[in-house]
Specification:
By secondary structure, the chain is mainly α. The protein has 2 domains: 3-57 and 244-269, no CATH class; 90-220, no CATH class. The chain has helices spanning 24-30, 37-53, 60-69, 73-78, 81-119, 122-133, 140-150, 161-169, 196-243; strands at 3-12, 246-256, 259-269. The chain is rod-shaped and about 120 Å long.
């Protein structure tokens, strides 16, 4: 809370005898403005009561940090209950949607990998490579070398993410799907590029990727919610403090050139 004091309109005291008086209340009673002494006492008591309550003025940094930690908490601190509920609802909704989409993506990934293991044969893929390369089928190392020299992509030895992506994405892996013919040596791998099993597999992979994108989007919403809630909490507290600015007027003793004066004091708290 900030306080500004402005001294206004000095008023000459009534008697030199009062100049020797060092007690404020007696000074006021002997001054020419004694009728204001009671009013001043009441004003002082009112100010002390406001200061003792201490909850009319809020800390802007505190509100901002509270909403960074948990959106809506800073708004609750500032007294804005509706906005607090709104930011908290977005937070809960964002994390709930993230969890649902993340679990959905994981379930679909397990599904399409099991489908690939059932309908795509690595052994038939090397059969097709051996047919077109003219190399011995049993020499897989040589087959891999020919594959890497001929195609821009090669089959990973481990069944990792790239392994399951490529078998559905690139045409060179098409003939290993169990509803595609391996074809003759003279036929290119374009003969049956889109088997029905491959098309279904790609559709499930697309659904998996869409679920992961939705989960990522929900995380972005959550992070933005923290940021905007923090900014709004600081702004809300700032408005709250301005609305609770206080001004009070009273008389205070003031000496000028060792002469007693009664000065009109304007006090503004914000």
């Amino acid at each position: 809370m900030r306080t500004a004091y402005i001294f206004m309109i000095p008023v000459l005291a009534s008697a030199l005898a009062s100049a020797q008086e060092h007690n404020w209340h007696l000074f006021m009673q002997h001054s020419a403005t004694a009728e204001y002494a009671t009013e001043l006492s009441t004003l002082n008591q009112t100010e002390e009561l406001a200061a003792s309550r201490g909850n009319e003025y809020k800390s802007i940094p505190k509100a901002a940090l509270m909403s960074i930690a948990l959106p809506g908490l800073g708004q609750w601190y500032s007294g804005s209950k509706i906005k607090a509920a709104l930011f908290l609802a977005i937070e809960v909704g964002g994390w709930t949607f993230y969890g649902a989409q993340k679990n959905k993506g994981n379930d679909i990934r397990s599904e399409f990998r099991a489908y690939a293991d059932a309908h795509w044969s690595e052994s038939e893929y090397w059969d097709w490579i051996a047919l077109h390369s003219g190399l011995e089928r049993n020499d897989v190392d040589k087959l891999r070398e020919w594959e890497q020299e001929t195609f821009s992509h090669h089959l990973h030895e481990e069944k990792d993410q790239q392994y399951y992506e490529m078998i559905g994405k690139y045409d060179q892996f098409n003939y290993a799907w169990d509803d595609s013919d391996i074809g003759s040596k003279d036929e290119g791998w374009e003969k049956s590029l889109r088997s029905q099993h491959r098309l279904y597999y790609e559709g499930r992979r697309d659904a998996h990727n869409a679920a992961l994108k939705n989960a990522s989007l929900s995380l972005t919403v959550v992070m933005l919610n923290h940021l905007f809630s923090s900014i709004d909490a600081a702004w809300t507290v700032s408005r709250h403090n301005k609305q609770h600015a206080k001004a009070s007027v009273g008389f205070v003793p003031k000496y000028i050139d060792n002469q007693p004066y009664t000065a009109l004091n304007l006090r503004i708290d914000w």
